[in-house]
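Query structure, 135 tokens:
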């Protein structure tokens, strides 16, 4: 089992800075319709255990579904985080981390809805698979 690591990041303009406790240098790729609209394609996210944000009122939260919220910067529009209150899932966008190298793809979710797919031996879960898991 890997050791959790504190990592830092910021949005494009720097008005939102964060410190995240990351359980592993792993990322997930989401192909769901909402993530496609939110990120204009594949959405790369990192699961986090704890998040401290300094946003100076520049973080805007959007209720994107009954159970989930998405956060973005009011100034530059950077997509920052996704939080699912039902499953307790909390993720931050991979591209915002200062040290985003050496992360490994763990899974593609809603893979049957995707515009494309990544190469590799990671897991792939269809919309049907995700529904069974409660998403």
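Result returned for the query:
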């Amino acid at each position: 089992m890997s050791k959790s690591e504190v990592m830092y990041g910021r949005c494009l303009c720097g008005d939102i800075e964060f410190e995240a406790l990351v359980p592993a240098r792993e990322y997930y790729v989401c192909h769901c319709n909402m993530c496609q609209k939110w990120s204009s394609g594949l959405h790369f996210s990192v699961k986090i255990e704890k998040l401290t944000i300094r946003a100076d009122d520049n973080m805007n939260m959007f209720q994107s579904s009954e159970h989930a919220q998405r956060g973005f910067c009011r100034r530059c529009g950077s997509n920052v985080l996704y939080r699912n209150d039902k499953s307790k899932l909390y993720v931050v966008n991979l591209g915002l981390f200062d040290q985003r190298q050496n992360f490994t793809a763990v899974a593609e979710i809603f893979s049957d809805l995707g515009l494309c797919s990544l190469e590799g031996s990671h897991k792939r879960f269809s919309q049907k698979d995700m529904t069974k898991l409660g998403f």
